[in-house]
Write a structure and sequence with these properties.
The complex is a heterodimer of chains A (about 250) and B (about 150). By secondary structure, chain A is mostly helical. Chain A has a single domain, classed as Ferritin (Up-down Bundle). Chain A contains ten helices and no strands. Chain A starts with a helix and ends in a 6-residue tail after the last helix. The longest helix of chain B is centred in the middle third of the chain and has 15 residues. The chains are: A mainly alpha (about 250), B alpha/beta (about 150).
Chain lengths: ~250, ~150
């Protein structure tokens, strides 16, 4: 890979995570359990989609081939998306969405923190902007984890089931592939092994505070970083890309 | 050829579309004006997802074109990231008068914009927009918004 290709591909992957989680949160608009949550959710979603726009725009600049943010979002098929499987998982009930956000955001803040120090100035600048937002999102997801886990018997049982169900999608966050290695070695990027240790510690503390049980070692699903997605992802893209596919080049 | 002070003066009359009592210079998002080749205005977005970012860029171009500046370019600057520390003193006063408590240093209590009491309580950290939290004043009972520190 040429030197510019590494940040381009890496920024695309970061954009994919942000866009797919943002799109999942958009599906919840007008479906939140109360008004306060409605606003919080919609505002987080805006942050994630804003981050995706910046990452895609930057990836397009690095590529130098004239691809716009919209080309990345609306004109790539499923297998070209490199987001984690975790973020594409369906919203389920409120506890499912909360656990998905908590597990991802606990990882994403550590990743962004490391990226603010990386040698690629474009990615470092977007990370510095994004980390302030994601810290705030994590406050929300972790507060809700505690409220649900340490809430009623019903909420405790349901959010424990969410944690057990989604845990298998966390392994992939820490498995470095060729691109992660290139980012680490050539651009002083994130060290996923170090992030894993910190993530384990932070998540264990949230889980304990919520009086939940941390799932044990188990088989971990992976494939997102290679473009092999779970069946849910195609439906998400079909809805998100519908307009551009039917009316190519449509603009506001 | 324009003077950057003159351009800055014109920009200080462009309102923020979401909180129109503030101008974009009160908010501190105008980072630089370069008049060496046309006019290049460097702006920094407040939040990644702020829906006002593009509206602000369009109103900067429109404000300068109205005054006869034809060659206006906008540069989006991400680093260093915007912080509420860049909101001017004047901007803070305007926010308070408008009914929004301005961002405070972390160790200071949030004062009610109506009666100035510090006896206030957070209702929700997650307010109507990503930049605001919901508060209530325990003394005068006014519910109000607080512009969070970032």
């Amino acid at each position: 890979m040429s030197n510019r290709a590494i940040p381009a591909t890496y920024a695309t992957r970061l954009g994919d995570n942000a866009l797919v989680l943002g799109q999942r949160m958009i599906e919840l608009v007008a479906a939140s359990p109360e008004l306060e949550e409605e606003l919080a959710n919609a505002n987080f979603s805006l942050d994630y989609i804003g981050q995706a726009r910046m990452f895609y725009t930057y990836a397009g600049e690095c590529e130098g081939g004239g691809r716009s943010e919209d080309d990345f979002a609306f004109l790539r098929p499923e297998h070209e998306y490199r987001n984690l499987l975790l973020v594409e998982q369906p919203n389920g009930h409120f506890g499912d969405s909360t656990v998905r956000a908590l597990l991802f955001e606990s990882w994403y803040v550590l990743l962004l923190e490391a990226l603010t120090q990386c040698a690629d100035e474009g990615i470092a600048a977007i990370a510095a902007r994004a980390i302030k937002e994601v810290r705030y999102h994590l406050r929300h997801s972790s507060q809700w984890l505690v409220r649900l886990g340490d809430g009623t018997e019903e909420s405790h049982a349901r959010v424990q089931a969410s944690l057990d169900k989604l845990w298998r999608f966390t392994g992939e966050m820490f498995v470095a592939d060729e691109l992660d290695d290139a980012m680490l070695n050539e651009f002083n990027g994130p060290d996923l092994a170090a992030i894993e240790l910190q993530w384990q510690k932070n998540v264990a503390a949230f889980v304990a505070e919520a009086k939940l049980e941390q799932p044990g070692d188990q088989w971990m699903a992976s494939g997102g970083k290679q473009g092999k997605h779970t069946e849910h992802f195609g439906f998400l893209l079909a809805e998100m890309q519908h307009l551009q596919r039917v009316y190519p080049g449509a603009e506001w | 050829m324009y003077e950057s002070d003159q351009i800055m003066e014109w920009l200080s009359q462009v309102p923020d579309p979401e909180i129109p009592v503030l101008t974009i210079t009160d908010l501190g998002i105008v980072r630089d004006v370069d008049c060496s080749d046309g006019v290049t205005v460097s702006l920094t977005p407040t939040y990644s997802g702020c829906p006002a970012t593009e509206a602000i860029e369009a109103s900067v171009v429109a404000a300068l074109e109205d005054r006869g500046v034809s060659d206006v370019r906008i540069k989006r600057v991400l680093s260093p990231a915007w912080t509420t520390d860049w909101i001017s003193e004047d901007g803070r006063k305007k926010l308070r008068v408008y009914g929004i408590a301005p961002p405070e240093r972390r160790d200071r209590p949030v004062a009610c914009p109506r009666c100035d009491s510090s006896n206030t309580q957070v209702v929700s950290e997650f307010g109507s927009t990503a930049c605001k939290a919901s508060y209530r004043c325990i003394d005068c009972l006014e519910p109000f918004e607080y512009f969070k520190c970032l």
